[in-house]
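Project outcomes to date are best conveyed with an example. Our students and postdoctoral researchers have been running inverse folding experiments weekly, and each run begins with a structure described purely in tokens. The record below, which covers 123 residues, was selected by the lab manager from last quarter's runs and is presented without edits.
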């Protein structure tokens, strides 16, 4: 493979890494193992996701999420997340309030499942 082809493959892989697609309801897993409604995922990629909520958590907050990937994947993935940015509700803003989460311990197989789901919904 030529250097140009390798460079092209790397660029394509990086694009795949940053694909975004709308997502459904998320559940947080409490220390006791019980689950509760957390918010609505608006975008998801291999590295993290945006949660639309009027009550975003503070930057640096960590917690475990359960993310049910709908058809055609039909898999539940779990991982530790960290809030990396948040946006509070403002009457003057046209931007949706919420928070950006970074996945901290996403297993490779679950990351691949997310990528497959995103690809399916991008086409």
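After processing, the design step wrote out the following sequence:
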């Amino acid at each position: 493979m030529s250097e140009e082809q390798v460079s092209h493959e790397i660029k394509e892989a990086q694009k795949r890494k940053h694909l975004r697609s709308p997502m459904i309801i998320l559940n947080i897993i409490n220390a006791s193992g019980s689950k509760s409604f957390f918010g609505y995922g608006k975008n998801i990629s291999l590295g993290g996701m945006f949660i639309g909520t009027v009550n975003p958590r503070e930057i640096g907050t960590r917690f475990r999420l359960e993310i049910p990937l709908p058809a055609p994947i039909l898999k539940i993935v779990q991982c530790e997340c960290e809030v990396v940015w948040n946006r509070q509700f403002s009457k003057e803003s046209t931007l949706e309030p919420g928070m950006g989460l970074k996945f901290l311990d996403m297993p490779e197989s679950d990351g691949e499942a997310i990528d497959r789901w995103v690809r399916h919904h991008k086409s």
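The chain has one domain: 3-122. The chain has two helices and six strands. The training component of this project remains on track.
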